[in-house]
Description:
By secondary structure, this protein is mostly helical. Helices cover 69% and strands 0% of the residues.
Amino acid sequence: MSTYDYYGTYDTIDTVSSTAGAIVGGVFLIIGLVLLIGLAVAACTIIGQWKAFKKAGKNGWEAIVPVYNLVVACQISGVSPWWVLIYFVGSTVLNVIPVLGSLASLACSVYFLILLNVSVAKSFGKDTGFAVGLIFLNPFFWFVLGGNNAQYVGPTPMNDVIMGMFNKNN
């Protein structure tokens, strides 16, 4: 008759360490993939803006300066560059107010986003559908604007209701 050792010890250290190693490896894999995708998206944006800015008569390097590239996009599209200041300072200051400030900040940001992207699309002879693409898939549509098919036609701003109110008072 054979005997079985019911009280024997099993080596679980290897199982635990290999499981932990697999988890850590998986986390690093996910972080690496996110970084690669982020770099690809950033490269599309930079290359597209660089070429689009050059088409509009600006320097390509202006695309890689974080806030200044918004000012240049405003200049290219004919939108008042004051919107960049309103966008950043307004969102910072308005967020101090708990609920209404956050809603006002969001409304200001969305309005500027729509205004700038529609104006950029019109300035390159594109329609409103292209502007929707610029709003939702910005890096890839900047890449398309930088391509050979898009031609810069000059500043063509969208009707800016808010800045129009301020300009009428002067």
